[in-house]
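Please decode residue identities from the backbone states below.
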């Protein structure tokens, strides 16, 4: 199985968008595949697609939306040519695009367009032909919830959205193809027969931090977490207002938020692998405290 990832790969940047896409795929893939990389940043959109025409591959992953309408027809023609050669094209839908369907090339009939779902396993997704503005096209809903991706031996990043959903879905699809559960000649049937339905309201609730019960969190635990976090944050949290602080605000502001969490867990003597955790469990300081309390931990040292 040969996969091409066409994305934004920054020069010597292990934390680039494209690098996150590749590492997300490897996190969930259970078979042996070859990944070839095409850097849109280095080559440009047109040149990248022209390069594809001379390559042999099974699956193409695109985790971006093309906004230049002047090249739509040319790109569409090339996509159809690639699909005619039995290539599977999987593309991220731009959920933020207004009035343009789901964006191009995800809205192309021959492309498997991936929209955001939440908490689906690598081999789970749901198939939908009634998506808003879909105009009859079928879309795959896959897990777009933020999660921790290992980008080097001791470094993690937080990656979410449809850009993450695409490689995670692709990993599940490749596994299914390798195991004989899916047939490359009729992916649509596989999607209909093996997909699991999840309501997208779950993703919205996660973003709003309304899923986990945080009302019974002990003030003592909250205060300890605030004290530890403030050792690392550029702008310390006001302890009086900590109940309203969004973890989302913290990780956006702090590039090393994954490292901060790892240190926090060590202080609370938690034996956890950060890659295995649902990031949405930490949507507020309240929910983070509740998560820690549920582990039944003992503090390493009184903080």
């Amino acid at each position: 199985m040969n996969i091409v990832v066409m994305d934004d790969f920054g020069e010597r940047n292990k934390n680039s968008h494209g690098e996150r896409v590749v590492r997300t795929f490897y996190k969930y893939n259970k078979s042996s595949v070859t990944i070839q990389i095409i850097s849109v940043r280095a080559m440009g959109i047109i040149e990248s697609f022209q390069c594809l025409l001379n390559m042999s591959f099974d699956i193409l992953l695109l985790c971006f939306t093309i906004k230049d309408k002047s090249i739509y027809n040319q790109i569409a023609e090339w996509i159809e040519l690639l699909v005619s050669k039995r290539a599977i094209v999987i593309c991220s839908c731009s959920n933020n695009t207004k009035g343009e369907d789901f964006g191009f090339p995800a809205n192309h009939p021959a492309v498997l367009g991936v929209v955001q779902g939440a908490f689906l396993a690598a081999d789970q997704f749901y198939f939908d032909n009634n998506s808003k503005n879909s105009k009859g096209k079928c879309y795959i809903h896959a897990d777009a919830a933020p999660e921790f991706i290992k980008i080097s031996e001791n470094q993690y990043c937080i990656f979410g959205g449809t850009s993450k959903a695409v490689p995670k879905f692709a990993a599940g699809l490749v596994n299914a193809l390798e195991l004989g559960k899916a047939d490359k000649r009729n992916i649509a049937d596989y999607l209909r027969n093996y997909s699991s339905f999840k309501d997208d309201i779950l993703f919205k609730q996660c973003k709003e931090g309304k899923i986990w019960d945080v009302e019974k969190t002990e003030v003592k635990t909250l205060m300890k977490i605030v004290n530890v976090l403030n050792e690392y944050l550029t702008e310390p949290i006001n302890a009086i207002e900590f109940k309203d602080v969004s973890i989302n605000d913290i990780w956006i502001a702090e590039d090393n938020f994954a490292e901060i969490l790892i240190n926090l867990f060590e202080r609370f003597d938690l034996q956890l692998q950060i890659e295995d955790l649902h990031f949405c469990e930490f949507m507020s300081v309240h929910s983070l405290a509740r998560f820690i309390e549920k582990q039944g931990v003992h503090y390493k040292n009184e903080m």
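Observation: The mean pLDDT is 80.
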